[in-house]
């Protein structure tokens, strides 16, 4: 990757995504499940750029969406409607209505109250809602507490007994068609046991539903496959698939998985330029032009991202790499070993493809970074850098109004 050329062409801070890496990750999962019918859905929230969605659509991916905005993005980018799943604990009426009218694959329901709303809205539209129920298997994914979702104390899903009750309710409703079963236990998971445990619990429910003549077609194992940021040993797609398939012998379900980070995380780089070096007492800081508004993971989860120089080598000393934002929590890396740096030297923050741009903000009135895709050695812009005009667009006309008008 020619970071220097990309920086001079597109300026910094800049997100760069390796589309060939995304293809390779997608294909590795698809292959791991090739003994069965499978649907690999991309979790749009990891990185919702339309060109990424289109790239994945071309590979045959579906999408897992957690807002109507994400459903609209998926449709706009050309994802087949019958490959779109809509999850999330707080869908509002207009979102449910939109999803039903668009006839997407299924709504993934997370509570009894939500199921009743879906039923009422489907009835109003005189249609039948395809749904899955999100089971909370009470399994510890052994990941960061903020990204663990499969425990009773988390807000997600319903316990297996409640799930069963909801399926029976669906069976007796002309407006609800239970086609799927779902669980998603967390993110950045690097331990196979929680997957095995969660699928075992969900598969048991699947079998008990079969006994009640409730025939589930889609078995959705969620996402959460971890990647390497530092020294983690990620689960291999093959082992992931085996942990799921081992629980599903004798069944004829289509296996669905919803991967975000695994598909795009390692494909992404955040390229940033050094502004200044400074020393506060014994503490060395490298101030760069990217900040927590571009990549919030270090500030939010104390997440580690490898940071490398682009064209300077040699040992150095430890420094905190920080942005211009007025918060002490604004850092991209702590105690990073870096050679002496000068104004305009480039640094690259690695594994920034997932939960990077999609969690970025305009805090401190900073326009969001541009995004570039690289494929077959060619690069192209996939999102223009925001401008000051973009930032004030929704406010400026109100300046013209006086309070006493
Ligand atoms: C966030 C999320 C995912 C994807 O998580 P990753 O760790 O990025 O794979 C999948 N399914 C649901 C329901 C989610 O909320």
* H/E series: HEHEHEHEHEHEHEHEHEHEEHEEEEEEH
CATH homolog superfamily of the largest domain:
Alanine racemase
Number of strands: 17
Distance between the termini: 57 Å
**The CATH topology of the largest domain:** TIM Barrel
- Strand count, sense and closure of the main sheet? 9 strands, mixed
CATH class of the largest domain: Alpha Beta
Structure overview:
The chain has 405 residues and is of the alpha/beta class. The protein folds into two domains: 3-13 and 266-387, Beta Barrel (Lyase, Ornithine Decarboxylase, Chain A, domain 1); 33-259, TIM Barrel (Alpha-Beta Barrel). It is 29% helix and 24% strand. The chain has helices at 3-10, 19-32, 50-59, 68-76, 93-102, 112-124, 160-171, 192-211, 237-245, 261-264, 297-301, 388-392, and strands at residues 14-18, 38-43, 62-65, 84-86, 106-109, 129-134, 176-182, 218-220, 254-259, 268-280, 283-288, 307-309, 317-322, 331-338, 346-350, 370-375, 378-383. Strands 1, 10, 11, 12, 13, 14, 15, 16 and 17 form a nine-stranded mixed beta sheet that branches. Strand 3, helix 4 (68-76) and strand 4 form a beta-alpha-beta unit. Helix 7 packs parallel to helix 8 and helix 8 packs parallel to helix 9. The radius of gyration is 23 Å and the shape is globular. The structure holds pyridoxal-5'-phosphate (PLP). Residues 43, 45-46, 64, 66, 87, 184, 187, 222-225, 258-262, 354 line the site of pyridoxal-5'-phosphate (PLP).
